[in-house]
């Protein structure tokens, strides 16, 4: 069943890594890098997810079969995102108008 | 690698169901079944993630404004809280494997306390939003960001965090049941499958939040 159990020190080190990555992601968001911001945030989130899956969820000490459902799910999510984004970004016209507010704003001159 | 031998006098031996030849096969089947369920949970949230990505591609500016309006301090605190609760759950599995269920129960209690703290902070956040007139769907009346894109962002915000909060609540019920079992010495070395599977569920809820956090608080 299991290959080799992790030690408790491993869990604490992984947790420290996760917290460090969380801090890095937060500080990066304050730097306002524009488009790179989104890419960096998602990359860091992916690395954190891999750490949780491998160590906290013990995939690293289990047979490969147990990793298959997650791998397939990740591929399917990627496929869905690709299809939907390529559809939406290639459309010609999308309405972008303000929605009417339920009551008119106060008539004080600003 | 030989496996560590459980003590001769097992306090809580695992029960073998009649359809399995041995405990190893039973445990493997239970784990694999859990992973399939977790993969289906990922796909459940993936639908909302794909909606978010599509609407963000259309209403990029309004989404950025919405993200900037959210409370990043609360969001980041909640990330740290969930990651720490995951550590405690992982350590509780470790304790059960060493045949120390009482220790595991205490660690699980800590994880439950953190999970409750997460929900309290989420409640604080929702209250702030309601006071500003930020509601999902057609009830949206936030005057600072009156655009359709902002309304869409906050509707998706309520949908994703709401579905996630329901999962956190379910996870807390599972952890509570496991904690009770630990204090009753129902689990031990060689009989840790329930704790492992409950832990897997909790970690998955954490993984979902790892992606929700940048989507709703950082990408401005």
TrEMBL record, chain A:
Claim: rRNA processing is one of the keywords in the record: no
Coarse class of the protein's main subcellular location: membrane
Membrane topology summary: Multi-pass membrane protein
Any Pfam family the entry gives: COX4_pro
Keywords of this entry: Cell membrane, Membrane, Transmembrane, Transmembrane helix
Keyword Transmembrane listed: yes
Compartment(s): Cell membrane
Database matches in InterPro entries: Caa3_sub_IV, Cyt_c_oxidase_su4_prok
TM helices/strands, residue ranges: 12-33, 39-60, 67-86
Protein name: Cytochrome C oxidase subunit IV family protein
TrEMBL record, chain B:
Alphabetical UniProt keywords: Membrane, Transmembrane, Transmembrane helix
PROSITE patterns registered for this protein in UniProt: COX3
Highest taxon of source: Bacteria
Pfam family, one: COX3
Membrane-topology descriptor: Multi-pass membrane protein
Domain Heme-copper oxidase subunit III family profile, residue spans: 32-220
UniProt xrefs under SUPFAM superfamilies: Cytochrome c oxidase subunit III-like
InterPro entries: Cyt_c/ubiquinol_Oxase_su3, Cyt_c_oxidase-like_su3, Cyt_c_oxidase_su3-like_sf, Cyt_c_oxidase_su3_a-hlx
Transmembrane segments: 32-52, 73-97, 103-121, 156-180, 200-219
Main location: membrane
Compartment list: Cell membrane; Membrane
Keyword Transmembrane: yes
Stated family: Belongs to the cytochrome c oxidase subunit 3 family.
Name of the protein in question: Cytochrome c oxidase subunit 3
Species, as recorded: Sorangium atrum
């Amino acid at each position: 069943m299991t290959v080799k159990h992790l030690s408790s020190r491993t869990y604490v080190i992984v947790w420290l890594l996760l917290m460090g990555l969380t801090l890095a992601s937060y500080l990066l968001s304050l730097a306002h890098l524009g488009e790179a911001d989104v890419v960096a945030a998602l990359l860091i989130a992916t690395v954190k997810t891999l750490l949780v899956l491998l160590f906290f969820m013990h995939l690293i000490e289990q047979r490969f079969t147990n990793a298959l459902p997650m791998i397939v799910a990740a591929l399917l999510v990627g496929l869905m995102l690709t299809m939907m984004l390529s559809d939406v970004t290639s459309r010609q016209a999308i309405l972008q108008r303000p929605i009417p507010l339920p009551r008119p704003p106060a008539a004080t001159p600003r | 690698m030989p496996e560590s031998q459980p003590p001769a006098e097992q306090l809580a031996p695992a029960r073998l169901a009649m359809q399995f030849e041995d405990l190893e096969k039973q445990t493997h089947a239970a784990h694999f079944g859990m992973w399939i369920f977790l993969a289906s949970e990922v796909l459940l949230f993936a639908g909302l993630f794909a909606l978010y990505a599509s609407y963000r591609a259309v209403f990029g500016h309004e989404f950025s404004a919405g993200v900037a309006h959210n409370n990043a301090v609360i969001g980041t605190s909640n990330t740290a809280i969930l990651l720490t609760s995951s550590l405690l759950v992982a350590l509780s599995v470790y304790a059960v494997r060493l045949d120390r269920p009482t220790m595991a129960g205490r660690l699980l209690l800590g994880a439950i306390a953190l999970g409750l703290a997460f929900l309290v902070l989420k409640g604080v956040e929702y209250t702030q939003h309601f006071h500003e007139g930020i509601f999902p769907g057609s009830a949206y009346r936030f005057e600072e960001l009156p655009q359709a894109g902002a309304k869409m962002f906050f509707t998706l915000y309520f949908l994703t965090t709401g579905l996630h909060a329901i999962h956190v609540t379910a996870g807390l019920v599972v952890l509570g049941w496991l904690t009770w079992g630990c204090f009753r010495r129902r689990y031990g070395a060689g009989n840790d499958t329930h704790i492992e599977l409950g832990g897997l569920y909790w970690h998955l809820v954490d993984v979902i939040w790892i992606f929700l956090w940048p989507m709703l608080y950082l990408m401005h």
